[in-house]
Structure formats: structure tokens, C-alpha cells
Amino acid sequence: MMGTGKTTVGRALATKLGYRFVDTDEIITQVTQQSISEVFATSGEAAFRQIETQVLAKVCAYTHLAIATGGGVVLQRENWSYLHHGLIVWLDAPTELLSTRLSADDTRPLLQTGDLRSQLETILQQRQPLYSQADLRVVVTSEETPEQLATRILQEIPQVLKQPSTLPQS
Ligand SMILES: Nc1ncnc2c1ncn2[C@@H]1O[C@H](COP(=O)(O)OP(=O)(O)OP(=O)(O)O)[C@@H](O)[C@H]1O
Ligand SMILES: O=C(O)C1=C[C@@H](O)[C@@H](O)[C@H](O)C1
Ligand SMILES: [Mg+2]
Predict the structure, then answer these.
(1) Which residues are involved in binding substrate (predicted)?
(2) Which atom of ligand 2 is nearest to the CA of 72?
């Protein structure tokens, strides 16, 4: 979800892993030469989603790469086949924390109309069933730094990887 820290924590995670890092929103701004808000304003959300899928399709093929996506990547069914090239981490943060973080931020076009808190609640409610399809859910609180969260993600990843004993015998 927007503001949970995908970009910030994803970058810290990549550093700890010795992986490269990309952010699909950053790639979109590079290829379109527009900010995310400008893409939404000039081409619309549907066009943005198409570009996002094209970018995801390219980057998901790489190994040793941590990818931060946009929060709406879960909305397109075909994106899931790309996401499943890797291990999908859901940063789950309460709307109260998100609204504190994003109240002074005007870079997210879907949050520019109406009351921020209720917009976040509405979007989160719609997407919760999709986010919950991730491989690993990490609950975000205001207490942990991005580096601490990245460490916790690394600690929790082995628990969602299949143990050799649970794999079918060949
Ligand atoms: N663990 C954290 N502690 C404190 N601030 C944080 C933490 N994680 C992220 N932030 C801050 O919250 C804001 C949103 O973070 P970020 O841009 O990484 O979110 P995002 O999930 O990538 O959002 P989007 O989906 O819109 O790209 C930023 O100002 C970032 O510095
Ligand atoms: O959650 C979303 O739908 C979005 C999240 C951002 O990362 C951007 O991809 C854009 O603002 C849309
Ligand atoms: Mg981001």
C-alpha cells in the first residue's frame, strides 16, 4: 500500500542482501520523462497500469534484485505471474500511520481528493484481499527504522520458504 515503505525498506533490504534495487515507479518516471502525477493527469490511470505491467514484466526476469513496486501493482491479474518470479513481501501498515506519513506529500495522485484517512481506508479495504496473497506479511509499526524492518524481513523469509522435508521426493 502507498506509504508503507516499499521504496525505503526495499532499498535497505537490497543493501543487506547485496542485491541491486529497482523501483517500478522510478523506472516509469524515467521512461515517460514525467512524474507519476503527470502520467496520471495526462494519460490516465489505465495507461499508467499498462506501463507498470510492462516495466514489471522486464524487471522480474532478473535475479539478485529487490524490486519495490507501486502499491497498485496487485490490481492487474497478469502482474501476479510476474510477481511470482520472486518472493512477494507485503508491508502491512495501519492507515493511521500511513496518513501521518503522507499528509504533507502530494506525489500520490490517488490520494489527492477528499479526506486522506478515509481515502486510505477505502483503498486498503478494496486491496486487502489482494495484498494478502503475498508470500510474506510484515506488520509495519512506527517504532522500526527501514533498516530494522529490512532485518526483520530477512529473518522471516526462511519461514515462508519450503523446507526440504516438505518438498516432494524425486
Ligand atoms: N520505517 C520507516 N520509518 C519512518 N519513516 C518511514 C519508514 N518507511 C518509510 N518511511 C517514510 O514514509 C514515506 C513513504 O515511504 P515510501 O515512499 O518508501 O513508501 P512506498 O510504499 O514506496 O509508497 P508508494 O506506494 O507511494 O511508492 C517516506 O517519506 C519515507 O521516508
Ligand atoms: O497504490 C497505488 O495505486 C499507487 C502507488 C504509487 O506507488 C504509485 O504507483 C501510484 O501513485 C499509484
Ligand atoms: Mg514507492
Answers:
(1) 25, 49, 71, 127
(2) 3
Q: What is the pLDDT of residues 72-114, one digit of tens each?
A: 999 999 999 999 999 999 999 999 999 999 999 999 999 998 8
Range of the domain at 137: 6-156
Judge whether residue 140 has pLDDT over 70.
yes
H-type alpha helices, 2-145? 6-17, 24-32, 36-43, 45-59, 77-83, 95-102, 116-131
Q: Cα separation of 151 and 16, whole Å?
A: 8
Q: Tell me the pLDDT of the chain averaged across its residues.
A: 96
What are the phi and psi torsion angles at 44 (to 5°)?
95, 165
Total domains in the fold of the chain:
1
Residue 20 marked ligand-binding: no
Looking up residue 27, the CATH number of its domain turns out to be 3.40.50.300
Q: How confident is the model at residue 168 (pLDDT cuts 50, 70, 90)?
A: confident
Out of 9, 13, 101, mutate this one to test ligand 1's pocket (max ligand atoms within 8 Å of CB): namely 101
Q: Is 152 annotated as a binding residue?
A: no
Its pTM stands at 0.94
